[in-house]
Amino acid sequence: MNDRAQTTVKRVLNESGLEVQQLYTADDVAASGGDAMIGLPGEYPFTRGIHREMYRKQPWTMRQYAGFGNPQDTNQRFKYLIANGQTGLNVAFDLPTQIGLDSDDPLAAGEIGRVGMSVDTLRDFEIAFEGIDLEKITVSMTINGAAAIAIAMYLAMAEKRGYDVKQLRGTAQNDILKEFIGRGTWIFPVEPSIKLVGDTIEYCAQHAPKYSPVSVCGYHIRESGATPAEEMAYAFCIARAYADEVIARGLHVDEFAGRLSYNFNIFGNLFEQVCKFRAGRSLWAKIMKEEYQAEKPGSMWLRMIAAGGGGGLTFEQPELNIVRGAYYALISALSGTQTMALCSYDEAYTIPTEYSARISLRTMQILIAEMGLTETVDPLGGSYYVETMTNQMREKMEQIIAETDAQGGIVKLVSEGAIQAKVSAQAYKMQRDIESGKFPKVGVNCYRNDQEDEHPVDFHPYNEDDARVQIESLNRVRAERDAERVTRALAAVGEAARAGTNVMPAIVEAVKAYASVGEITQELVKVFGRYQEPIRF
Amino acid sequence: MNDTAQRRIRVLLAKPGLDGHDQGAKVVARAMMDAGFEVIYTGLRQTPEQVSRIALDEDVDVIALSSMAGSHLPFCRKLKPLLEANGLDDKLWMIGGNLPAQDHDALRELGFKGIFPTGSKLDAIAAYIRENAA
């Protein structure tokens, strides 16, 4: 630290634990490792962006998370968002679908269509995407435990509509390891869950090479209490676990790594987030090149969706979340992410209404149309502060990865509940710091309104009748389908699982026969068993 | 306050239904332990039958649910008769999480007297339990 940077007021640490100086100069950049890792956009190590032209060529994809009720309801919301200028879709599924239960399962009662759309069979996918051009609009699916089935349904639906699956783009979240840390939509134990992810990667590499079968999520690990540096470091550890699984089957890294993508969170200190993304981009490139000997540049790209995260939004004075969302979108644009999504201002209360979803979309459009955010690549590049902090964040992430490896690796730590316990302890400390006022949060512990109980939020209505309609629809499909073909296809799923071969071909055949999410899951549970959660916090 | 002088207040903290968002529940569990209560945290995906059985087996004073995904009313409607059948209607029933204000009266009528929506303070939850648990 040079003399001018000597702190004269008080010491500041960012959330990742790095000291923030009062002033940065060229000396600080040099002391933090220099400019060796800066480079140029589109060139290794990609600190400044994975493409040379970035948003000049094409602005980020705008992909709001949406889905509720029956596939018909969701199809309407999709069309509404597309009509308003959204350029991608991110499908929300209800909880029964996400954990492999059919709508008529007793455990699904009260949860059907509530936090996302309900899916039982391929018929529901056909309805949900009816009238949507799958070449123009790329579809991302937020599903993990039952992701293999959802991917099979998406590919089968597209094929049925005449699309060439070899050319089909799209993404499934399909990151089960982070579900054990946060979010909790697991089904099978850890080992077979990783095997299933491997099956989807291998299957897509061979049959749908432009489809992204996994979007590794730092996002939910951050929501669970991780720091920004941990968010990205743990995500990389998880991505390495999936890569190792697939490489052990004999695939070369360049056969699949180009289709791995990422999902990260945005809230908190603006500069810490921007540096997180810049640092992460170069660290992932380094990991792929040096550790995995990737040769194709695409294998080294940290392709990502960055979402203005729920963890930063507040229940108090919810309209302030519109302002926070605008800053999060700005951070995303300054960070050179590929896809942007924002939690809507009312999400602490309800799933977004058309009105609040449109505000989120317009927020991103303002950045493109009015603010000049698409004109210059990596506009913060070269800032003494940003380059120094980027170097320091990279070093911090490398440190966390090395510690994780030294403790036995991410799979072991997640299986034991150790990561869960660590981030949960941090979440508790953060909540205490917010309640004591140590960590300022506008509207929560400072600048509160006198009248806190009047919130201008409209609720998205939940239709109690959705469940009945969905179950009737499932029963109709069951009555109409070829029962023998279904029985054969389900038996084949079980056989593949028992044999330890790739289950995807059998799942694809099963969904084409209109076997349901619950039926296919049951076949897998018979072989794999169910996950038992280690209770650690 | 009667027998709380002899034994610590026992709190069952349950995650009802299929909702996987447990960050808040775990934060509250830690806070209740720090407040001096014994906490039994169930983990995810508890059915009404499971919650009711654990509450009975563990002889708890407080039955608290953490619900973030909107299914609180259907769940509580199923849980209420089960708790009553187990003779647990004299215990303190609480619920926290994403609970729209419009649902609070219905929750209270179902017997969930302590309602702590998103934004509630940890110390307020602990104080409420200390005040109201038998």
Automatic annotation (TrEMBL), chain A:
Origin species: Aromatoleum toluvorans
Assigned keywords, A-Z: Isomerase
One Pfam short name: MM_CoA_mutase
UniProt key word Ion transport: no
InterPro entries, sorted: Cbl-dep_enz_cat, MeMalonylCoA_mutase_a/b_cat, MMCoA_mutase_a_cat
Record's protein name: Methylmalonyl-CoA mutase
Domain Methylmalonyl-CoA mutase alpha/beta chain catalytic: 15-530
The keyword Signal belongs to this UniProt entry's keyword annotation: no
From TrEMBL, chain B:
The keyword Transmembrane helix is annotated on this UniProt entry: no
A Pfam family of this chain: B12-binding
Cofactor (UniProt): adenosylcob(III)alamin
Keywords: Cobalamin, Cobalt, Isomerase, Metal-binding
Superkingdom: Bacteria
Segments forming domain B12-binding: 8-134
Record has Isomerase as a keyword: yes
Protein name as annotated: Methylmalonyl-CoA mutase
Lineage: Bacteria, Pseudomonadati, Pseudomonadota, Betaproteobacteria, Rhodocyclales
